[in-house]
Write a structure and sequence with these properties.
Blueprint lengths: L1 H20 L4 E2 L5 E6 L14 E3 L9 E4 L8 E7 L4 E5 L2 E5 L4 E8 L5 E2 L3 E8 L9 E3 L2 E9 L6 E15 L9 E12 L3 E4 L14 H7 L15 E6 L6 E4 L6 E2 L2 E3 L6 E2 L18 E4 L5 E4 L1
């Protein structure tokens, strides 16, 4: 019985020793700091494509955060944990990509205190030593060379507001068993993404209508505003391809001209003009915002307009 009691007493003492040795550290200012990424000027018509991986400019310097461990800390080394609420979807070149929203997957790497590259999320990474850890004095959380990678899973259309969100919460402890309850700093992202929209007509080529040679006498016989005899209307289909415009979107096409007379575009010969109509032979009035040809894009954000 005495042996058992002594054994239990020894175990109890050991547990108490472990509890006093284990400590949770905090930001030396008393408030967790935030390392923020602004995504406002990152995307354009080139990289705003599904599958594209966009690497943000590296934050090469030290994050500038100091921690402090409470009295009773008996060691001079710490562990760091990078915790997230996002779920890892895939790993590419050691980067763990998490779905941040409907448009993006995000992943990160950083270099820690002992100059090893880390790919969070990851818990209880053993760091280097600092004599201040056990002295209840501030010491640097020497994370640096932060690299943030974004993978586009759905292209942005026009303007999308990304609310500020915490990607990682960073904790510092003295053992790999301490609870992760006191953040030292956070890594966040957010911003307003604006991607220019544009549509290209006929793959950028000039649309030509060749009416051949029309004698001056035919114009005289037709009179002002009338089509010369024998000159037949021509029909052409114009290919439309849009970038950063939602598939199946409803759009309209209108006509702009530098010289106009009624519903006609005036050519470089001021006595000669042309009228453009839709497939129902309804004339389109140049420079009139309400005179348009409606059409709808297909699944590839393209269409043909007659």
């Amino acid at each position: 019985m005495k042996i058992i009691c002594r054994l239990l007493l020894a175990m109890a003492c050991l547990c108490l020793a472990n509890i006093s040795w284990a400590t949770v550290c905090a930001n030396s200012t008393g408030v967790a700091e935030d390392e923020h990424y602004d995504l406002s000027n990152i995307f354009n018509s080139t990289n705003n494509q599904p599958g594209q991986i966009v690497v943000l400019p590296e934050k090469s310097g030290w994050v500038g955060v100091s921690a402090i461990c409470p009295p009773g800390t008996l060691v001079n080394y710490t562990y760091r944990s990078y915790v997230t609420n996002f779920i890892v979807q895939e790993t590419i070149d050691n980067y763990k990509y998490m779905q941040l929203n409907d448009y993006l997957l995000g992943a990160m790497s950083l270099v820690d205190s002992v100059m090893d590259i880390q790919f969070p999320p990851q818990n209880y990474i053993r760091m280097g030593t600092d004599p201040n850890v056990s002295q209840n004095l501030p010491f640097g959380v020497m994370d640096s060379r932060l690299i943030f990678r974004l993978k586009v899973i759905r292209p942005f259309i026009n303007m999308v507001e990304i609310p500020r969100q915490v990607m990682f919460t960073v904790y510092v402890t003295s053992t790999p068993y301490d609870p992760l309850v006191t953040p030292v700093y956070t890594i966040s992202f957010g911003g307003r993404v604006e991607v220019p929209q544009n549509c290209e007509l006929n793959a950028g080529q000039i649309v030509e209508f060749d009416f051949g040679d029309i004698g001056a006498s035919l114009f005289s016989a037709a009179g002002p505003g009338n089509r010369p005899a024998g000159v037949m209307p021509q029909t052409k289909s114009i290919a439309v391809k849009c970038t950063n415009v939602a598939a199946q979107a409803y759009l309209t096409m209108r006509l702009e001209a530098s010289a106009v007379s009624g519903q006609a575009m005036v050519s470089d010969n001021q006595d000669l003009g042309f009228i453009v109509a839709d497939q129902n032979d309804t004339p389109i009035t140049p420079n009139d915002l309400n005179s348009v040809i409606p059409f709808r894009l297909d699944a590839a954000a393209a269409a043909n307009v007659t």
